[in-house]
Amino acid sequence: MTLFETFVKPRLQPIFNTSFAENNIEVSLLRLDEIHPRVNGNKWFKLKYNLQYAIENNYEGIATFGGQFSNHIYSAAAAANLLNIKSIGIVAGANPQQLSHTLLFAQEKNMQLHFVSREDYRKKNEEAQLAEWQKLFPQYCFVPEGGTNNLAVKGVGEVLNLIEADFDYIVTACGTGGTLAGLASKIKPSQKAVGISILKGEDQLTNSIKKLIGSDKNFEVITGYHFGGYAKTTDELRKFIQTFYSETGILVEQVYTAKMLLAVIDLAKKKYFKEKSSVVLVHTGGLQGLDKSILV
Ligand SMILES: *Cc1c(COP(=O)(O)O)cnc(C)c1O
To answer: Do the strands 26-31 and 12-15 form a parallel or antiparallel pair, or are they unpaired?
Structure first.
């Protein structure tokens, strides 16, 4: 695919914090949020081989799943549009009369929105329900929620080619775990991939990643940094986003990346990272979902 050539190579930017200095670790941020104005962060890497598969197998487009604020839906619509293929978003629990900005954007990028009940949506991985949707959209290549499948793992693995410096740890926020799986599948045995789960009570993540990559050796999912659960915020989290932005000029959002950063600061205080180690944090993007009221 030549599309990637229009993307910007992400910077690896040093990040300073007293807890990093005190524990003698070097931390940098891989700015995947900067690779493209629309298809940014981890989602492009998760989507690229799925899109390529759909194109090479002559599907009309891709059909995929998400909630009304989903970064995946946003990026899938934008990427399919860039590649001139169609897209369908199967969306749960939205009011079609009052679309979120995410869904309005998706529609602008010619994504056809198909609204389903939360109840049906929960069954999206069950064969019978999937077969029903496939019957509705037979010419479409179905990509799971968050884009997480083997092709996503392959795409995310390529993120590592963009990092020239050596490192000991690579850290990402985790939703479905596809990004962590992709990183874990490609790092060296001496390196470790760390996923900060942003979901509350997520105990299936380690297992599903293990299933995706066939190993549980070089990754760890860390829970307890969900700040109340998916998309929930606290004053501490909001304050952190403001301070981090005013000190570094880097925007992070409240659903994934700010939680990941706060987790890393806390883990450093708890001496989770070996002394003198080098830690790469992945800025997975998702800024379309930033709650802008946090910044004012
Ligand atoms: C989707 C997303 C993640 C989580 O990726 P998974 O592969 O589902 O674990 C992390 N950060 C951002 C900004 C995202 O949009």
So the answer is: antiparallel
Eight-class DSSP state of 4: G
pLDDT digits (tens, 9 = 90+) for 7-63: 888 999 999 999 999 999 999 999 999 998 888 899 999 999 999 999 999 999 999
What pLDDT is attached to residue 3? 61
Domains and CATH numbers, the chain: 2-39+150-295 (3.40.50.1100), 42-147 (3.40.50.1100)
289 within ligand 1 shell (Cβ under 6 A): no
Whole-number Å distance, alpha carbon 24 to ligand 1 midpoint, is 28
Output the six-digit token pair for 118: 């939360």
Separation in Å, CA 286 to CA 70, 96, 127: 9, 23, 30
- Residue pair 158/183 in contact by the 8 Å Cβ criterion: no
257 lines ligand 1 (CB under 6 A): yes
Ligand 1 centroid to residue 256 C-alpha, Å: 7
Confidence of residue 216 (pLDDT cuts 50, 70, 90): confident
Query: Structure pTM?
Result: 0.96
- Work out the average pLDDT over 184-201: 96
Q: What is the DSSP string of 262-293?
A: HHHHHHHHTT-SPTT-EEEEEE---GGG--GG
